[in-house]
């Protein structure tokens, strides 16, 4: 199954190109429900799952990370 990372922002903050990301979550491709169950705005920033585990993917949701590793055990750095 394909995945991508989707941004969560501080409460009440609308996503824009320069909005700081509170935390990154993993979603199934083009989805808005994170693997941890959090609903994310469809307009929030996304980036490739390949960024997971790199500085560009931080901070990252620990729950999403654990669930992602269960589906992709070979992706450990």
TrEMBL record:
Organism of provenance: Streptomyces kronopolitis
Highest taxon in the source lineage: Bacteria
Name of the protein in question: Uncharacterized protein
């Amino acid at each position: 199954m394909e995945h991508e990372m989707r941004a969560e922002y501080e409460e009440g903050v609308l996503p824009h190109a320069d909005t700081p990301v509170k935390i990154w979550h993993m979603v199934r491709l083009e989805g808005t429900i994170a693997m941890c169950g959090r609903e994310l705005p469809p307009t929030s920033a996304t980036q490739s799952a390949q960024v997971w585990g790199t500085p560009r993917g931080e901070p990252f949701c620990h729950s999403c990370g654990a669930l992602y590793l269960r589906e992709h055990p070979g992706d450990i750095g």
